[in-house]
From TrEMBL:
<feature type="modified residue" description="Phosphohistidine">
    <location>
        <position position="203"/>
    </location>
</feature>
<keyword id="KW-0597">Phosphoprotein</keyword>
<feature type="domain" description="Response regulatory">
    <location>
        <begin position="14"/>
        <end position="133"/>
    </location>
</feature>
<dbReference type="InterPro" id="IPR001789">
    <property type="entry name" value="Sig_transdc_resp-reg_receiver"/>
</dbReference>
<feature type="modified residue" description="4-aspartylphosphate">
    <location>
        <position position="63"/>
    </location>
</feature>
<dbReference type="InterPro" id="IPR036641">
    <property type="entry name" value="HPT_dom_sf"/>
</dbReference>
<dbReference type="InterPro" id="IPR011006">
    <property type="entry name" value="CheY-like_superfamily"/>
</dbReference>
<keyword id="KW-0902">Two-component regulatory system</keyword>
<feature type="domain" description="HPt">
    <location>
        <begin position="164"/>
        <end position="257"/>
    </location>
</feature>
<dbReference type="InterPro" id="IPR008207">
    <property type="entry name" value="Sig_transdc_His_kin_Hpt_dom"/>
</dbReference>
<dbReference type="Pfam" id="PF01627">
    <property type="entry name" value="Hpt"/>
</dbReference>
<protein>
    <submittedName>
        <fullName>Response regulator</fullName>
    </submittedName>
</protein>
<dbReference type="Pfam" id="PF00072">
    <property type="entry name" value="Response_reg"/>
</dbReference>
């Protein structure tokens, strides 16, 4: 079997696997070990809820058909818990051997985000995790204060671009004021699960980023616009939250220029 590479930041993530078949549960554990992911294995939805009450997970993979508490009941219980406690939305991936009984619409209706078919190849699992696990931490987290990311503009580069320090100061004030309004409106749109308004505010923010150039967030924002328009807010919740976090770090950097 060819080597499967994974992002370095995955070592900070934890996955919960819910599967009643002991052999398949063990196989899932082996696959996650190969991918370098910390994980916990449980045999039904009731045990999963107990595990979630004790620690935070970045993603849940659950069989659909289980005794005691099946995957659909588990997904609904997790979504209700998130709503009641104001918790961050965790991706839930359905694990099924039969898309006739466990059809995609039934999975979505229960609050699941995607599904994997048994028997599960390691590469298929990795590809799914690449899409649904959180990305790397915000770009500023590991940098000293005042140090730009490689493709972020510096004050000198902006002065060279716009001609004078005075123009740069005026431009930054205007851009940051508009970005603050748009980020607040984006939060309201996300809370309301309003896909149209979310896409609209993302479009405005992407325009602000493109005005300065080279932020590295413009392409991510543009891709999110397409995904939100196609699939809605809930499916893209984690990506949107990560985008907001990285955008906030970038705007904080600009305020210091």
């Amino acid at each position: 079997m060819r080597q499967v590479t994974t992002p370095a930041h995955w070592r900070h993530h934890r996955v919960l696997v819910v599967e009643d078949h002991s052999a398949y549960r063990a196989m899932m554990g082996w696959q996650l070990d190969k991918l370098g992911l910390s994980h916990q294995l449980v045999e039904n939805g009731s045990s999963a809820m107990a595990a979630i009450a004790c620690r935070r997970f970045d993603l849940v993979i659950s069989d659909c058909q289980m005794p005691v508490m099946d995957g659909y009941s588990l997904a609904r219980a997790i979504r209700q818990r998130e709503q009641d406690l104001g918790c961050e939305r965790v991706p839930i991936i359905a694990l099924t051997g039969n898309l006739v009984h466990d059809d995609p619409q039934r999975c979505r209706d229960a609050g699941m985000d995607a599904w994997l078919l048994k028997p599960l190849a390691l590469e298929s699992l990795r590809d799914m995790l690449m899409h649904w696990l959180p990305g790397a931490p915000a770009a500023l987290c590991n940098q000293p204060p005042g140090v730009a990311a490689l493709d972020w503009p510096t004050r000198d580069s902006l002065v060279e671009l716009f001609g004078s320090p005075r123009v740069v100061d005026q431009m930054l004030r205007s851009l940051l004021t508009e970005a603050q309004r748009d980020t607040q409106a984006l939060r309201h749109a996300l809370n309301a699960q309003d896909a149209s308004l979310t896409a609209e505010r993302l479009h405005r923010l992407v325009g602000s980023l493109a005005f300065l150039g080279g932020a590295g967030l413009e392409s991510r924002g543009s891709a999110l616009i397409s995904e939100v328009r196609a699939h809605g807010v809930a499916v893209n919740q984690r990506k949107l939250e990560l985008f907001q976090s990285d955008l906030a770090a970038y705007l904080d950097y600009l305020r210091g220029l």
